[in-house]
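Input for the complex:
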Amino acid sequence: MVNAFSCLFKKKVTETRPIPDEEIERLGREIKREIDARFGRSLAIRELDAGSDNAAEIEINNLANAFYDVERFGISFVASPRHADVLLVTGAVTHNLEIAARKTYDAMPSPKFVVAVGDDACDGGIYKGTYAVLGGADNILPVDMKIPGNPPTPTQILTGLLALMRTAGKTP
Amino acid sequence: MTGQVLPDEDAATGAIRELFGAAAVPARITYGCKRECSIDVREPEFALSIPYLASRKFVLIGLFCVEGFREGAGHSLLYVFERKGSILILVRNLTNAQATSIAPVFPSATWPERECRDGFGIEFDGAFDTRRLLLHESYPAGFHPLEKSFSNTPVMTTTTIDAADEYPFRKVSGEGVYQVPVGPVHAGIIEPGHFRFSVIGETVFNLEIRLFYTHRGIEKLAEGKNPYDCIKIAEAVSGDESVANATGFSMAVERLSGITVPDRAWYLRTILCESERICSHLGDLAGMLTDVAFPLGASQFAVLREEMVRENERLTGSRFLRGMLCIGGVNRDIPAEALAGFRDFIVQFRKQCKVGFSIVLSTPSVIDRFSQTGIIRKPLLRPLNITGPAARASGGVVDMRVNHPYGIYDRFSPAPHILRDGDVLARFTVKAAEIMDSLDLISRVIDAMPDGSIKSDEPIRDGCALALVESARGQNLCWVRVQDGKISRYKVRTASYCNWLALEHAVPGNIIADFPVINKSLNLSYAGTDL
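Predicted:
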């Protein structure tokens, strides 16, 4: 019989899983350096689904699993836009979500940054010019960084965030 | 009506014979390639059919509108019923955009009728709910995007909504009842939807769900396009059901064109379908454990999921298995050594899953939260057409791979895991068992993998066809009509669409703090519902 308590003493499960992803470690170290220097050691991200097909959400969620575990780099996903520095927008903004998306952005304290994640959020993707969507997130929000992909992988999202860290506040 | 079905007759043909007399069989019936019975009915016949079909335990699995389906009729409503592996499609041709509602008899018609009203402007007499569904307040009145006269172009909407025009939620009142509005933007990294709880103390008294925030116009988007270009639209119905919806779409087009998919392609498709199911279920298990604050188990399953996703990427180049399916087969072959590697991976993976399950199921604090929480009762399954693991955890023997086998599922049938409790624990257990089952199924498929071509080059013809597939969440229905080589109607109805109403019934009586875990135990797709 295995129980949770005994697992704590068995020295496994959470301890020994190898993380062979040197790319992630390198990205993480660089992001951490930027966050430490420019965001007071912590970057709070609020995710906003503005009409996504949920693939991007899954990949953003994956950033928290043990392979990536981005919290160790100083990135945390927060429950309220009031706590957020960065808004990650996914999906070609639908008419049905336009009001909620604007309210979410407005609720964030300044300075604030918007990142469009995925092809749909970047420019409307396959939905461009159709009745139900406004198109890319930059139609309603000032987008600072675009991370294309269908959906972008966790590594690509991290790469995009690093690029944002490096440019944030520097461009007019 | 004697209620007798002839020995060699399927349930649908039997129903038609009983309803419209022996002369109607087979004269008025059109059979599809999977013996789906389709019959055009006049209004008095339709009125007679509905109570009869309800009494004969037919389940309404689809209801949608098609414009220009029959010569001379503007709109046709297609009612798709299922009973014992047999499909009956009633075609109701409307002379004006007016029809009687069947929602009082078949509750699963409520949302589709509202959808037909939004999409095509059809009014349903006797409907008890006539609020807009797909199109929220910002859309102009009288706008019906699915009508053929509307070409898919941007539409003027408004962001200033008068209080009088706001969506009227059901009113629940009484001493001590208060409302908790949640959404559409939620606290976690999840999709948008609005949940209106009416609560007494801590206990939920009523839950009303409002969705369709991510309505992206998928069905209209496919219209007028070359079917080959629509696979990526089918994949975008719901990210974590990319393979299932692409399979449904391809199957429908293959059926209407009479394309025979090579065996090897079906073996590969089956591996993709089952891998997708495993990923989805592992995500659900991790999510349920997160929602009862058991990170030890949650991170186990999140890690396993990531391993599986990476394996998917190695096999297909896509973490979501996208771009593999195509009409007539699959786009790329998977080499034998990669498949052998996958089989070895599965052997190890299986052991790790087992360890994870035993940790969770021997942890009293988890069982305490899971057991007797969010019960879905069996009598709800048929009226609401609840399918998938949610139904199988409530005693329902529904699995499209078994009831309506497609591809090679007649040879590789999954063992049904049926539990009766209908609570979160039952859904967790069923999903856990299905992960093991899918892993075994993949191994068996790899062992029996035939050589040969992976794609048929037969051409696409005009016509229409229905396809049912078992996605990770249950029965996905897909109906496609091709005219002049272009898609003229693409109707997709995912399992989530029906199962959302199960959530409305599962939550009342539970405390509000248990809502997240109940919701996660069903893990329904918002995008797959909103389209």
